[in-house]
Design brief:
The protein is an all-alpha fold. It has two domains: 97 residues; 100 residues, no CATH class. 64% of the residues lie in helices and 0% in strands. Helix 3 packs across helix 4, helix 3 crosses helix 10 and helix 8 runs antiparallel to helix 9. The protein is globular and about 50 Å long.
């Protein structure tokens, strides 16, 4: 069954939006459930030639998460809430497409760079945290190894896979994630915000495989 193409009614959207403004604890989940699929379907119609459809879903998820963090940025006098959400999602998708094209030009396949820890690798100048994490996961129990194989079938970019590996290993240092995402030039506080956004998006994809995280 395909995603619902039609946007929610103005009344539905406005009702949940007002609950967001009132800080109803259940409103964020209800809002996301209401808009994620229709936004994704609309962008798929507009951008049918996108090389990786997951880019659309990720862009929509990012834009909705941003909106949920800052719902008061929407100004009703400037247009409908649905139009505002579409413009934000489309902007995030265009940025994602630009990043995707750059990554495709410069990134090696994971199989070329994921080196296990061993004496044979002692000539490397530095083993990065994600490589250590993947090496440990490769030696884990069979059920976890099977999970890793399933996750590899997902359409992760090389950078996203490194973040996934760190998350599965339980890495908590923002600096480790920021280094892989190229965010070390940002302030510590901004690094935390950007890393959280990426991890939240990847969690939503990992949940489809039954992965759950217990992070504080």
């Amino acid at each position: 069954m395909g995603l619902p193409v039609s946007p929610p009614s103005t009344q539905e959207l406005e009702a949940v939006y007002q609950r967001l403004l009132a800080q109803d604890p259940t409103a964020p989940d209800d809002f996301a459930e209401l808009v994620l699929d229709p936004l994704t379907a609309q962008l798929r119609l507009r951008y049918a030639s996108v090389p990786d459809p997951q880019l659309i879903q990720d862009a929509v998820t990012d834009s909705v998460l941003t909106f949920l963090e800052h719902p008061k940025r929407y100004r009703p006098e400037r247009g409908s809430l649905w139009h505002y959400l579409m413009m934000n999602a489309e902007g995030d998708l265009r940025n994602a497409l630009s990043r995707y094209q750059r990554e495709q030009q410069r990134q090696l396949p994971l199989s070329s760079v994921a080196l296990p820890l061993s004496a044979g690798n002692s000539s490397l100048e530095e083993v990065r945290p994600w490589q250590e994490a993947e090496a440990r996961l490769a030696l884990s129990a069979p059920p976890l190894q099977e999970l890793l194989q399933r996750l590899r079938s997902e359409t992760f970019t090389p950078i996203e896979w490194r973040i996934v590996v760190l998350m599965l290993q339980g890495e908590r240092r923002t600096s480790a994630y920021a280094a892989e995402l190229g965010l070390t030039y940002l302030s510590i506080e901004e690094q935390r915000k950007q890393v959280k956004r990426v991890k939240d998006r990847l969690r939503s994809r990992l949940k489809r495989h039954g992965v759950r995280f217990d992070e504080k």
